[in-house]
Amino acid sequence: MGSEGGHLEFLSKSFKKPSNVRFGYGIIVYGKTKIGENTYVGDWCILGAPSFRSIKENVEGSGCRIGKNCLLRQYNVVYEDADIKDEVETSAFVHIRENTVIGEKTYLSTHVCVEAGAMLGSRVRIAEHAIIGKGCVIEDDSFLGGSSMLAWDKKMDGTLTPVVLERGARVADNVTVVGGFRIGMGSIIGANSVVTCNIPAWSVAYGVPAKVTRKVTLKEITVFNEVLAKRYGKTKPSILDLYLESQ
């Protein structure tokens, strides 16, 4: 590693920085990290950080992949073998662990932690201080509220039992979803809930433990669909299309 220019960059010899990628101050890049065009990496970010395995074996690690037109703000840490797709945006102090996938146009807010092996789809929004456990899956167009947690260890014995949020699921603030359970397509989980069972598609649930209280309405899905279309453009099939097909 060595310092380049006036920006105090510590770059792996295996890394080749594209000319149209902008770095802030104090960037550290490990391994064969690859960054797409027109991406900005904020101050004091670490890219391709070695996993425990690489440190134990005393090898450099493989680096990470970051797509085109991404915006990573200051103090992000992205571990090796993470795959960040195009147009992803993060706030400060985001941790993205090894072997994760972050889909296109996804947004991660301040102090979000995405644990190893988790997979996030496209157009996902994660609010501040949320934790996404090992191997958990969040499908396209979903939302996870602030200080919410998707657990991965239901029996607290180290067994991997990830949570799945199906497409268009919305989870409010301060919710815990216990490992191994699934939130169905288009469902809504109210704030401060603890989910200890599978939630069917197109349902509204809340409480400790969370219980289904009713079905989502056509109006609720229509408004949500309009928000998605305004923010990202129209997709096919849309969340409204999927709702209408299910009725």
Give the uncertain stretches in residue-range form. Answer: 1-6
Overall geometry:
globular
State the CATH architecture: 3 Solenoid
Average pLDDT taken over every residue: 93
Biggest sheet character: 11 strands, mixed
Structural class label:
alpha/beta
Q: Care to count the β-strands?
A: 30
Instruction: Give the C-alpha Rg.
Output: 19 Å
Short description:
The protein is α/β, with parallel strands linked by helices. Helix content is 11%, strand content 28%.
Can you walk me through this structure?
- This protein has 247 residues and is an alpha/beta fold.
- It has one domain: Hexapeptide repeat proteins (UDP N-Acetylglucosamine Acyltransferase, domain 1), CATH 2.160.10.10.
- 11% of the residues lie in helices and 28% in strands.
- It is built from three helices and 30 strands.
- It has helices spanning 52-56, 218-232, 239-246, and strands at residues 2-4, 9-11, 22-23, 28-29, 34-35, 40-41, 46-49, 65-66, 71-72, 77-79, 83-84, 89-90, 95-96, 101-102, 107-108, 113-114, 119-120, 125-126, 131-132, 137-138, 143-144, 149-150, 164-165, 170-171, 176-177, 182-183, 188-189, 194-195, 203-206, 211-215.
- The protein has an eleven-stranded mixed beta sheet, with no helix packed on it. The chain has an eleven-stranded mixed beta sheet with strand order 3-6-9-12-15-18-21-24-27-29-30, with no helix packed on it. The protein has an eight-stranded parallel beta sheet with strand order 5-8-11-14-17-20-23-26, with no helix packed on it.
- β29 and β30 (211-215) form a beta hairpin.
- The longest helix has 15 residues, at 218-232.
- Mean pLDDT is 93; it is low at 1-6.
